[in-house]
Amino acid sequence: MQDQSSLMRYRTLGRTGLKVSEVGYGAWGIGKALWVGAEDEESLRSLRAAHEAGVNFYDTALVYGDGHSEGLIAQCFGEASDIVIASKVPPKDYVWAQKSGAQHATVFPKKHVLESLDQSLKNLGRKYVDIYQFHTWIDDWASEDEWLDTVREMKSSGKARFIGISVQNHQPTNVLQALDTGLIDTVQVIYNIFDQSPEDALFPYCQRNNIGVIVRVPFDEGSLSGQVTPKTKFPKGDFRNSYFGGGRKRESWNRVQAIVKDLGISMEEMPQIALRFCLSHPAVSTVIPGMRNTRHVAANTAASDAGPLPEETLHQLRKRRWIRNYW
């Protein structure tokens, strides 16, 4: 499975006991939804290349192209037992930034969750998924009897080995009450050089309670890879037009340039620095960058071989924490 030109390391995903590659495969981009330009043949090549490089963790979701991403994983791997698959149930109302007071019954009613799980299993061609995650979350729901019953039923059915929560964007503490129930095995959270907020409360909680941590958006949607400049233009329909709206492209670029200067590196080294920053925290089990082509696969998987960053480098990067207003 593994390309001997680089060494993929593995970590235990919290109390699940699953051994997962430090660099996993984020499969949002290959689903095509909101990411413009993905081509299925190239996506399949990237999936195979990742597997050959030692990647065994694949994170997808029912909403990624209405099951298209899950279908590509099934097409590539069939029922192979040497990979770990995580998928997600979308909110029934398709509201991704849930507000306090939102009703659990309109977002994750039991019938919707169980039917979505069955659909994902059909797309994946599997009898069970290793990790099944709620695709957004507010902690108002942690004491809902229906939610608690739904989680228990999914586990007892054998269709979901473990249950996780994909924490709502940039709200790393909006999950702690759910974790207190003891029913949640993993969390997926945004964590990168700019958004270091999970270090404050979430990561220490996960370390104390042996919760697996899956890190998403390690490149801040591309800015920390050095690929987003003030002149970058995204295709029509690409969500990054909104994410980098206003003057954010310019400010992101200026901040990345400052990091390059601080560390005395080239811009080409930024992607690996960004991934190694995430992997340097002991709470993190795996980081899941998107890699829609084989070039991305080679660059991203090399970060595991390179190992954690030196303490002096981490000290410099902690100064680059960026507290932003996202709403």
Q: Characteristics of this structure?
A:
eight-stranded parallel beta sheet; TIM Barrel; 327 residues; 10 strands; single chain; alpha/beta; two-stranded antiparallel sheet
Describe the structure.
It contains twelve helices and ten strands. It is of the alpha/beta class and 327 residues long. Helix 1 packs across helix 2 and helix 1 (40-52) runs parallel beside helix 11 (294-306). It has helices spanning 40-52, 68-77, 104-107, 110-124, 145-157, 176-180, 202-209, 240-243, 248-263, 270-279, 294-306, 311-318, and strands spanning 10-12, 19-21, 25-26, 57-59, 84-89, 129-134, 160-166, 186-190, 212-216, 286-287.
Mean pLDDT, to the nearest integer, reads 93
β-strand number = 10
Question: Please, what is the oligomeric state?
Answer: single chain
CATH topology, which one? TIM Barrel
Q: What is the tally of helical segments?
A: 12
> What number of structural domains do the residues give?
1
Biggest sheet overview: 8 strands, parallel
Give the CATH architecture: Alpha-Beta Barrel
- Summarize the amount of helix as a percent range: 25-40%
How much of the residues is beta strand, in percent?
5-15%
Which regions are unreliable across 5 or more consecutive residues at pLDDT < 50?
none
Q: Quickly name the level 1 CATH class.
A: Alpha Beta
- Structural class, please? alpha/beta
First-residue to last-residue Cα separation: 43 Å
State the strand order across the main sheet: 3-4-5-6-7-8-9-10
H and E order: EEEHEHEHHEHEHEHEHHHEHH
* Rg calc: 19 Å
The shape is globular
CATH superfamily heading? NADP-dependent oxidoreductase domain
